Every structure is written in C-alpha cells, then in structure tokens.
C-alpha cells in the first residue's frame, strides 16, 4: 500500500504513518462512540423492561383487587 502511495504522492514514510495514525484514531473514536450509544440503548431497554414488569404487576394486583370487590357485592 505504501509503495503505491509513494509513487503517486512523494511523501515521507513518517508523514504517511502520521496520516494513517490520524485515520486510525478517528476510527477508534467513532467506534468507541458507537459502543457508548449501543450501551445507552441497552440500558434504556433494560429500564423499560423493569418499568413494564412493575406496571404489569400493578395491573395484576388491581385486577385481583377488583375481583375481590366484585365477590363482596
């Protein structure tokens, strides 16, 4: 790869390495950002699941209470 680039662009090996390192750093930063976003999404899903369980339990409790009240009438 570097040999092909050196023929077209007369850059020093150091300059090419620096350019490549800069690109690698950007890719690493973006990958890290995407992982953080995925982690945030997973956390949000877990929180929604927990709230759903609470609402489901509350709904079941309410239904049971309503059935008991109907039996008392």
Characteristic terms for this protein:
73 residues; mainly alpha; 2 helices
What is the averaged pLDDT score? 84
Helix content: over 70%
Oligomeric organization of the protein chains: single chain
Strand content: under 5%
**Topology, number of strands:** 0
Number of domains: 1
Instruction: Report the order of strands and helices.
Output: HH
Q: Compute the CA-based radius of gyration.
A: 30 Å
Unreliable sequence segments? none
Structural class: mainly alpha
How far apart are the first and last residues' alpha carbons, in Å? 85 Å
The helix count comes to: 2
- Outline, from the CA principal axes? rod-shaped
Q: How is the main sheet built? A: none
Characterization of this structure:
This protein has 73 residues and is mainly alpha-helical. The protein has one domain (2-72). The protein contains two helices and no strands. It has helices spanning 2-8, 13-72. The longest helix is centred in the middle third of the chain and has 60 residues, at 13-72. 0% of the residues are buried. The model has no long low-confidence stretch (mean pLDDT 84).
């Amino acid at each position: 790869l570097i040999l092909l680039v050196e023929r077209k662009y007369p850059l020093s090996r150091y300059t090419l390495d620096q350019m490549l390192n800069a690109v690698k750093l950007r890719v690493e930063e973006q990958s890290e950002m995407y992982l953080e976003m995925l982690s945030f999404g997973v956390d949000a899903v877990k929180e929604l699941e927990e709230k759903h369980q609470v609402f489901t339990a509350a709904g079941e409790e309410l239904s049971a209470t309503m059935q008991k009240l109907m039996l008392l009438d």
